[in-house]
Amino acid sequence: MTQPGNLASTLGELRASGWASVPVKEEIRRNAVAKIAAGEQLFDGVQGYERTVMPQLENALLAGHDVIFLGERGQAKTRMIRSLIHLLDEWMPIVTGSEINDDPYSPVSRYARDRIAEHGEATHIAWVHRTERYGEKLATPDTSIADLIGEVDPIKVAEGRYLSDELTLHYGLVPRTNRGIFAINEIPDLAERIQVGLLNVLEERDVQVRGYKIRLPLDLLLVASANPEDYTNRGRIITPLKDRFGSQIRTHYPLEVATEVAIMRQEARPASVGDVQVTIPDYIEQVVATFSQLARASSQVNQRSGVSVRLSVSNLEVLGANALRRGLRAGERSVVPRISDFEALAASSAGKIEIESLDEGRDGMILENLVKAAVLAVYKERISPDQVREVIGAFEEGIVAHTGEDVASLDEARLVEQVPALAGPVSALTKGDESPAAVAAAVEFVLEGLHLSKRLNKDASSAGATYRSRS
Q1: Where are the extended beta strands (E) located within 319-400?
Q2: Are residues 167 and 115 in the same domain?
Q3: Region 204-214 average pLDDT
């Protein structure tokens, strides 16, 4: 980022410019008020929280609270925390050379106080961008007080300074984020004796380093995240620390399939490469999102560990990648994922879902059944029985359909010519896309829906699948 050329360079110029110093929480509150009054969202890229999490977060910021986000993995906790920097002013003045972002009007470190005492109004001023006013620490059991608060720097002592000299201190992450936002992810993993070291930060707003008779009154917003299970499993947040957080906000997974689809579209990496175009129709996206929603409600899935939205994103990416690989092998330049491509989801789902099963080796079957349930749910929503009545009749008259990875899109699309009744439901799915790839994907979806509805038989093998009449 390029610093504007009209910013003050000395303390005297800063005073003359009329710049006023405000606490960081007041600064965030002021900018949040402006966004809310303008009808703008506080953050971009966070979806599904408009009526649940966001109002609570807005209340917390307007109240000047430190915040802890409580929720399972993959619920955008870290993204929201990092997005808070956009509520800071773009540029902030500090005493040049200060390690803890000393306010030129109210310096707290020995270094800054000495500089101002020596140079007065000629003290040099540096400007810090808001992206540099954010500090973050992933809590781990080996995190020490020195990491967070500070420690004696042996190099400075070796240079001839006395141990009692405040200038021998090496500041930790918290003081270095003075006048900014400091975040601790997975805070229950922090040893309890280290959590005690944060009590003063949250209440008295200062830190003390070892036996030094110093007090650093810090100005910061402290934000933390935790998984609900962490309160009782790997660790816990000590009661005095929980009491010092002003607001605790519970996050959640997308409540609706449409929200999950919107997140997938936002986060998934495009599958197209070179001149091979991969198009994922909305009904296929809906199946992927429904798969995740069903997994979150399944008794065979460990709900304590959660089913992250990353599952949906990864599944959509793998589905597109499998379709791309199939298209490259077939020499096709336009590719659309089919039902047969859903077999690839086993690899992208296995590591993100914890199956609870007494029988060894049932994980694959449980995932397969979830995919089938998702396909059936979307099929029933998209296709009415009246649309496929004549299709079933055609199969009862002897039509047999072959599908699979080795069947070219053009060959599968020709099924519409053999069974004209397929044109109606296929057209409802393709929405005007008459390319062989789109038609083939829709045909396979309709046939699989009929099979899962127990209207057609399906013989599956490593070579593909064959659909035929049940009679």
Answers
A1: 334-335
A2: yes
A3: 69
Average pLDDT over residues 32-53: 91
Kindly tell me if the per-residue pLDDT of 27 is higher than 90.
yes
Distance CA 15, CA 116 (A): 14
Structure tokens at 139: 């809590």
Between the alpha carbon of residue 365 and those of residues 138, 322, 333, 345, the distances in Å are 36, 20, 33, 12
Rounded CA-CA distance 8/417 in Å is 75
pLDDT score at 355? 85
Q: Which two tokens stand for residue 289?
A: 């999102």
Query: 250, 269, 298: which is the final residue of a domain?
Result: 250
Asked if the model's pLDDT at residue 181 lies above 80, the reply is yes
Nearest residue to 218 (alpha-carbon basis) of 99, 394, 327, 303? 99
Tell me: do 365 and 244 sit in the same domain: no
Residue 232 has pLDDT above 50, yes or no: no
Cα–Cα distance, 32 to 379 (Å, whole number): 44
- What span, in angstroms and rounded, lies between the C-alpha atoms of 392 and 439? 18
Q: Could you tell me which of 28, 16, 419, 459 has the C-alpha nearest to residue 223?
A: 28
- With 0-12 CB in 10 A as exposed, 13-18 as middle and 19+ as buried, what is 415? buried
C-beta of residue 289 within 8 angstroms of C-beta of residue 261: yes
What is the tally of structural domains in the chain? Answer: 2
Q: Which two tokens stand for residue 31?
A: 């900018």
Collect all residues with Cβ–Cβ distance below 8 Å to 461 and sequence separation of at least 6. Answer: none
- Which whole number is the average pLDDT over 363-382? 94
pLDDT 10s digits, 127-146:
999 999 999 999 988 888 88
Q: How far apart are CA 297 and CA 301, in angstroms?
A: 8
pTM, whole model, 2 decimals? 0.87
Could you tell me if residue 138 is inside a domain?
A: yes
Residue 5 belongs to some domain of the structure: no
Strands 220-226 and 180-185: parallel
Tokens of 41: 């969202």
Look up residue 434 and give its amino acid: E
| Residue at 97: amino acid letter | G
Same domain, 386 and 448: yes
